């Protein structure tokens, strides 16, 4: 099963050279955990020094993120964490409302013991993070729940699309949500898993739609403008 958090594989950026995949994963994770915010400039030179990698390697990672619409590149200005527009934000949710109920139905049809275990283990991780109020983990795990469901449903196109869409959702939430960042409501993930346990794809799809409505409903047309300290984010 593909994992979005490949942190154990990563070396300490201060002590070793980073590959472009590692750079990609660290930036991806920083966005997922809301440490990197929309519109942040990703200066090649600074990232190259932070990750002890060549600029070419940094560019390779940034190009991959740009291909996934997570990063934007402007001639003569450089790379920036994407700032999805209100319209793009709506597009993201429209796409999720089409894909995720299909993920639920497909997953309910081919549930097995292993998949149940994976879902319940993930719910437990989410609960543990909430217990200790680990906000970064809560945000990351909330997004990963959706990626996990897609991966378990077993359609690689869903999985790829959802990985992109959930990262874009993270950026959208950061841009258009209240200062206190909301993540997925835990009880809704639980209700989804309960329905999947029973093989009830219709209920799971319905709860998923309500869940997406709640997330989109919390958005405000509000944006934040902040200077980011890249060294602080990655080397802290
Ligand atoms: Zn969720």
UniProtKB/TrEMBL annotation:
Keywords: DNA-binding, Transcription, Transcription regulation. The lineage of its organism: Bacteria, Pseudomonadati, Pseudomonadota, Betaproteobacteria, Burkholderiales. InterPro entries: GntR_C (IPR011711), TF_FadR/GntR_C (IPR008920), Tscrpt_reg_HTH_GntR (IPR000524), WH-like_DNA-bd_sf (IPR036388), WH_DNA-bd_sf (IPR036390). It comes from Paraburkholderia saeva. The gene is rspR_5. SUPFAM superfamilies: GntR ligand-binding domain-like (SSF48008), Winged helix' DNA-binding domain (SSF46785). Residues 17-84 form the HTH gntR-type domain. GO terms for molecular function: DNA binding; DNA-binding transcription factor activity. It comes from the Bacteria. This is HTH-type transcriptional repressor RspR.
